């Protein structure tokens, strides 16, 4: 019997998990992307793109497509879609598993200031002008217009449009992973004195955190949002193992 699995993605792990599960003869995997990135990397499995229309829309999709298992492998800061996934699974009576990559913890030498939102992060930069590296994603940087006295270096996968309404900002287009040595060179070249980051967890974007530590630079770390309490695993391997060990039938 073939099992239909819908993976909510937009992360490297979602793509890797999709590949692993699609290799099973009894699984038909579809990966769902929000459609934010203009040219997403090839995913290797069938992809559908765009919002579902809230939790109700997702529940209707699960029923219409006869999905047997929903996997939420979205980014830890994508709180809305994770909440929708938990609710839609309940409404549609479809089992749900989440891939929850653990956050980074500060270690000796780190100079972190932890805040709850990007608005708080802009405030935490203080009144005196500083040279700030914003490694946040283009949806979040607008909050820094409230602190126009700083110089900003803004890195994103797609161009920030419209540009930030501040007098002194430069832009860098790049897609991770980013290694510590290159991140260190970037921070030095741009004479950065504070990094603003999400607590994404994982290896791919940790380079800037390690580089900031090595250079004694402050990191303003935006804490993770609250996510719904659903059965979860921390890694692609662990989540694939749950599906393999019990078989998809276990979740039905
Ligand atoms: N937030 C980040 O820092 C970040 C970083 C890297 C990658 N991403 C990825 O980018 C996507 C969007 O992030 P976000 O912060 O905008 O999410 P969000 O605020 O939680 O979601 C906003 C809306 O976007 C739609 N959506 C989000 N993810 C979707 C998916 N995988 N498939 C279909 N629709 C989706 C849903 O629309 P409807 O309500 O209409 O269904 C959702 O309500 C996510 O897939 C996430 O994994 C986010």
In helices, the fraction of residues equals 25-40%
Radius of gyration: 20 Å
Please state how the strands of the largest beta sheet are arranged side by side.
Answer: 3-2-1-4-5-12
Which regions contain 5 or more consecutive residues with pLDDT less than 50? Answer: none
> What is the general shape?
elongated
Number of strands: 12
Mean pLDDT: 94
- Small molecules (ligands, ions, cofactors) in the structure: NADP nicotinamide-adenine-dinucleotide phosphate
Summarize the topology:
Blueprint: E1 3-8, H1 12-22, E2 27-33, E3 47-49, H2 54-64, E4 69-72, H3 79-92, E5 96-99, E6 112-115, H4 118-124, E7 131-135, E8 151-156, E9 169-173, H5 180-189, E10 194-198, H6 207-215, E11 218-222, E12 232-233, H7 236-246
Helix pairs in contact: 1-7, 2-3, 5-6
Bound molecules: NADP nicotinamide-adenine-dinucleotide phosphate (NAP).
